[in-house]
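The instructor's notes for this session suggest beginning with a concrete chain rather than abstract definitions. Hand out the sequence below and ask the class to guess, before any prediction is shown, which regions might be ordered.
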Amino acid sequence: MGNTGFIMVDDFKTPDIYRRELTRMEAAMREQIEWLKDWHLYVFSNTGDEQEEFENIAEFPFKAWYGGLPQELFAESPIFVALGFNLESMQTLANQFVRVFQESGHFPEAEYGDFMDSVSKFNDLVFKLMRESLNQVAHVDDLTGVGNETGMRAHISAERERVRRTNQQACVALAELGEYTVPDEDGLELDPDVKVSRSEVISRFAQTVEEMLRPYDQLYRIDNDDFVLCLPYTDTDVANLVVNRLHAALVGGGLGMEDGTKVELVLRFGIAPIGADDEVEDVMEHAREAVELARANALLDVVAWYVS
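After discussion, reveal the predicted structure:
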C-alpha cells in the first residue's frame, strides 16, 4: 500500500474526522487552562487543610480527550506519544507540589518550577500536534483521503532534490480517469438497474490504486478525474512496467466496487521523469503531453515522455 503518512490510512480516518478532533482538542485545551487557573486559586488561597477539595480538581481534564479516539487517530505521531508522557509527568509534578506544600506549610519553589516547566512543555506539544495535524489535513483530498495537489507539489519538489543529491531517478504518472460503464452479468450491455455515482467510482479507484502501489509510492488526486502517482527510485522504463500492470488490472479486470459491482473504466496514463533541474510545472507539463498522446492514439493508454 502507498505511503500516506500517519493519517488517512483507513476508512474512518477522514479529513472531517480530523477536523472534528482538532476542534475537540481546542476545547480540551481551554478546559485545561481553566483547570490550571482553578489549581492556582486552590494553591494560593488555601492553607493546605482542604485535601478533599483538591482531590476534586486533581485530575487533568485534557486526559479525557487524550484517552479517547485520538489514541487511534494520532497513534503514529511521535508528538502525540510525547504528549502522553508529558501528561503523566505533569500530573505527578502537580500532585507532588501540593503534597510538599501541605506537609511543610511552605511554598516549595523547586517543585513549583518543575511543574510549570512541564506545563510549558505541554503547551508546546499541543500546539505542535495541532500544526502537524492541520498540515496533514491541508495535504489530503476530502473525497478520497489520498494526497491533494498541494501535497503532490511538495512531494515532487522533494523528489527532485533527492534526484539532484543522489543521482537516482524518479517519475510521476498522471492518470486520467475517463468515462465508466456498468455492464450486465454477461458483460455485453449496460445494466440499467445498477447506479454507481461518479464520486463512488473516484473513491474506489483511489482506494484500489493505493492497495496496488509499492510501499514507497504515493497517490494524489489533483483534479476531479486526475490523479498523480509519484514513483521514487524508478526510471522511465520501470515506471512503464509498473503503470502498465496497474492499467491492465484496473481496465482488464474492471474496478470492483464494495458491493461486488464491476465497473469498466476508460483510463489513460502519462509518465514523465523528474529531472534534477525540473520545476514541478515542467514535470506535470510533460506528463500531460504524454496523456494527450495516449488520448490521440486508440491503441495506447499508457505513454511515457522521454527526454530527447
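Then share the key points. The CA atoms of residues 54 and 73 lie 33 Å apart. The chain has two domains: 15-138, 149-304.
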